[in-house]
Write the structure tokens for this entry.
Amino acid sequence: MRYFDLHCDTMTECYVKGKHIDKNDLHIDCQRAAVFDSYVQCYAVWMPDSVCGEAAFSRFKQVANRFSEEVRSNEQTMVQCRDSGDLARNKEKHCAVLTVENAAALGGKLKNIVEFARLGVKLCSLTWNGENELGRGVRASGDGGITPFGRQVVKELENNHIVVDLSHASPELFYDVVSMARGPVAATHSNAKSVCKSARNLSDEQFNTIRSSGGLVGLNLYKGFLNDDPDKASLYDVLRHAEHFLSLGGEDILAVGADWDGSEKKDFVSSGLEGVPELYELFLRHNYPETLADKIFYKNAADFFKNEDLL
């Protein structure tokens, strides 16, 4: 099978915990990646809400450099994808895409977007859960949306062909961004609020707004975003969220953003890459045509990045 995953924190965990991507006890490593016929993974530089200013930009560079080092160290099986040509030429390799979770990583400086682009960043969320100089995350108090600096950042991200990721955005920030964005937006790792009421999930209106923009939504495998009772969450809940999004016309925009290594393994319905084929088979057993399952697990994300001249 083919697998394209829109979001994980694995490379940040490698940096923080001193682990390596070739083999580790995290959700993802190169050895387990070999099970797929084609595999593309978006690796986020995650910025905690507690880090800001120059310290945030410095951390971004350190994690991004670690990403580059890990790719070079595994060049026989792994490659960084910067454009569609890289993906076309390396279908049998573990293709790695650099992304940013929380644009506090800019250190408050617009000019640093150029460095994001130079290093190959393709997706960037404006916030994590809290509030920063761009706007308010989904778990921050208040009712504010985007800031003047945030508006400048959205424009410059788009100018540099970096897609704005609205996972973690407050509703106010979400709608402020889509009202000004010139191109498609994404929610790389967010589920359906109609199925699970978590504030991190998307309302039907939000999903339809992303669909209308030509964007992309990734199914998250974190238990707390799958079931209102996380202790009861299972792979079947992923199917429930997928079916809801498909009922809203999401056949061409639905993907997977598992959120690997965003929390401990016990907090997910799958222990890592080795569980993906089981999830794929679950879709097939529930009468999903193989063509539709392939769209959700790979093709929709691949087509999006190709159409937007990102990969």
